Amino acid sequence: MAKRREDRQKRREAVLQAALDVIVERGLANTRMSDIAERAGMSAGNILYYFESKDDLLMELLRWSDDLLLRQAVEEFEQLPSYTERLRRLTELAGPSGPSDPSWIVWLEVWSLSPHDERIGQGHADLDRRWVEFLTELVRSGQEAGEFSAETDPADFAVRYGAMMDGLAIKVVAGIDGMDAERLLAACNAMAADELRPRTATTRRPAAAAGS
């Protein structure tokens, strides 16, 4: 039974990876379930066994991508001695690598659909809420450790920080105003330094283990 579940999970992830590749190449509107099936080496019927529609697959693709990102962040946090470094690394992981960044291309597709599709809009909101909660907890933990200023509201900062990242990321993916990943990170780091006012290593407590 365990082997069957593992095989099913592997096939499901193969479909998600194929969907990501095809959507990035063709755009969501020009992607058919049969295109994804062909890329995954399966039949269209096999794809429909895992996902009822292209919209269902799209939202699951985002959840899958988001899960991978947060899991990697938590794992790497264990090796980072300060919350400032953790925030910087989280920003690096979450931001687009450039105009061809696959995950962000999919996010742009979802943003365009959200106002017109209630299910996609709700799924989008849920994922955004999870990101804000993760970031809020990171900032709050930094405050409790004495590294970040206690004057900043963690939840408010998380919303605004995320919004700035989103806006700059769109410019990176669209190739607007010469914005790139390096400039995005520098802008986010500047905002964090200005509002969180991190303390030096000699005046703060060590960062707690991720998830504690």
Characterize the structure shown.
This protein is mainly alpha-helical. Helices cover 72% and strands 0% of the residues. It contains nine helices and no strands. The radius of gyration is 19 Å and the shape is globular. The two termini are 33 Å apart.
Find the count of extended strands (DSSP E, 2+ residues).
0
Distance linking N and C termini: 33 Å
Average pLDDT, to the nearest integer?
89
Strand content range = under 5%
Q: Count of DSSP helices? A: 9
Dominant shape: globular
Structural class, by secondary structure, is: mainly alpha
SSE ordering: HHHHHHHHH
Task: Show the helix and strand layout.
Blueprint: H1 2-26, H2 33-40, H3 44-50, H4 54-77, H5 83-94, H6 102-113, H7 118-144, H8 154-174, H9 181-196
TL;DR?
The chain is mostly helical and 212 residues long.
